[in-house]
Specification:
With 276 residues, this protein is α/β, with parallel strands linked by helices. It has two domains: 2-95 and 210-275, Rossmann fold (3-Layer(aba) Sandwich); 97-208, Rossmann fold. Helix content is 48%, strand content 16%. It is built from twelve helices and ten strands. The protein has helices at residues 17-26, 48-64, 75-88, 97-107, 119-123, 126-134, 148-153, 160-175, 192-199, 208-222, 244-254, 266-275, and strands at residues 7-11, 32-36, 69-72, 93-94, 112-117, 139-144, 180-184, 204-207, 235-239, 261-263. It has a six-stranded parallel sheet, with helices on both faces. A four-stranded parallel sheet has the order 6-5-7-8, with helices on both faces. Helix 11 (244-254) links the parallel strand 9 and strand 10. Helix 2 (48-64) packs across helix 3 (75-88) and helix 4 crosses helix 6 (126-134). The longest helix has 17 residues, at 48-64. The structure holds D-glutamic acid.
C-alpha cells in the first residue's frame, strides 16, 4: 500500500543521520531508507551543476527503493537542487532551508540571526534569502564553516581541533551579538556541544533537521500518506563508499548501533539516472 512505503532520506554523507534521528522520533512507525553519498562528500565545495546532478542520482536511487517521499537532508543540496528535483519527480520533496528559516525567525528576539553552513549554502545565500522573505527586517550574518564537515565525519565531537576550528569560524558572529544561530548543514548538530560552548550559552541553536521533521510529518499527513502500521518502522542504510567508518560514527550519534550498512556502486547510481 502506498502509505506504508518508506520515506527516503539522502545526504552527502553522515550528516543526514541527524535528520533521521528526529524523523524516527516524530514518526516512529514510518520506515526510512537512508542514502549517504560518502564516496562523493563533501558537496559544499562542489559546483551547483554537480550538486544538482548528484541530487538527481540520489533521488532516483531512493525512488528505485520505492519511497513515497524524499527528504533532502542536506542543506547544500536543498539550497541548490530542490526546484530541479520537484520538476523531475512527482513525490513530495522536502528540504531543509524553509523549515530552518521559519524556526529561526520564530525564535529570534533581537532580530539578529547567524547562519553557518557549507561554502555552497553560504555563497548561494540560501538562508538569508529565505529569512528575508519571512521578515525583511531581520539581520542575517552568514559564515561558511567547511572544516566542520570532515570533523563531523571523523566523529571528532569533543576534540581539541574542533574547538580551535570553531573559535576561528565563530569569532565574527560572536561580535555581531546574534541571539539565534542556524546550524545550516546537517553535519553540524553532531558538533552542537562545541558550537554552543564557543558561541555562548545565550545563543539559541537551530537544528534544521528538527524543523524539517515536523514539516515532513505535516506534509505526509496532509496528502494522506502517513503509515497506518502500529509497529516501529525499519531504518535501512545505504552508502556509496566502504561503510566501516560510517557504521562507527552513525552509532555514535543515532544513540544505538547500526547493524547493517549496504554499499551502492557509483556506477549503479549513474546508470539509474541515465536510464530515466
Ligand atoms: N550535510 C550537508 C549539508 O547539510 C553537506 C556537507 C557537505 O557535503 O559539504 O550541507
Amino acid at each position: 500500500m502506498e502509505r506504508n512505503k518508506p520515506i527516503g532520506v539522502f545526504d552527502s554523507g553522515i550528516g543526514g543521520l541527524t535528520v533521521v534521528k528526529r524523523l524516527a522520533s516524530v514518526l516512529p512507525n514510518e520506515s526510512i531508507i537512508y542514502f549517504g553519498d560518502t564516496a562523493r562528500v563533501p558537496y559544499g565545495s562542489k559546483s551547483n551543476a554537480t550538486v544538482v546532478e548528484y541530487s538527481i542520482e540520489n533521488t532516483n536511487f531512493l525512488l528505485h527503493k520505492n519511497v513515497k517521499a524524499v527528504v533532502v537532508a542536506c542543506n547544500t543540496a536543498s539550497s541548490i537542487a530542490i526546484p530541479e528535483l520537484r520538476k523531475r519527480f512527482d513525490v513530495p520533496i522536502i528540504g531543509m532551508i524553509e523549515p530552518g528559516s521559519q524556526m529561526a525567525v520564530n525564535q529570534t528576539r533581537n532580530g539578529k540571526i547567524g547562519v553557518i553552513g557549507t561554502r555552497a549554502t553560504i555563497t548561494n545565500q540560501a538562508y538569508s534569502k529565505s529569512i528575508k522573505i519571512l521578515n525583511e527586517k531581520i539581520r542575517v550574518y552568514e559564515k561558511a564553516c567547511p572544516l566542520f564537515v570532515p570533523l563531523a565525519e571523523e566523529g571528532w565531537i569533543n576534540h581539541k581541533a574542533t574547538y580551535e576550528v570553531a573559535e576561528e569560524y565563530l569569532k565574527e558572529l560572536r561580535e555581531e551579538e546574534i541571539d539565534t544561530l542556524v546550524l545550516g548543514c546537517t553535519h553540524y548538530p553532531i558538533l552542537a556541544a562545541v558550537i554552543q560552548e564557543v558561541i555562548g550559552c545565550k545563543v539559541q541553536l537551530i537544528d534544521s533537521g528538527v524543523a524539517s521533521s515536523e514539516i515532513v510529518k505535516k506534509e505526509i499527513s496532509r496528502i494522506g500518506l502517513e503509515s497506518d502500521s502500529n509497529v516501529q518502522g525499519n531504518i535501512s542504510y545505504y552508502v556509496s563508499d566502504i561503510p566501516t567508518k560510517f557504521k562507527e560514527v552513525a552509532g555514535l550519534f543515532l544513540g544505538n548501533p547500526v547493524e547493517e550498512v549496504h554499499k551502492v556502486e557509483i556506477e549503479e547510481l549513474v546508470s539509474l539516472h541515465s536510464a530515466k
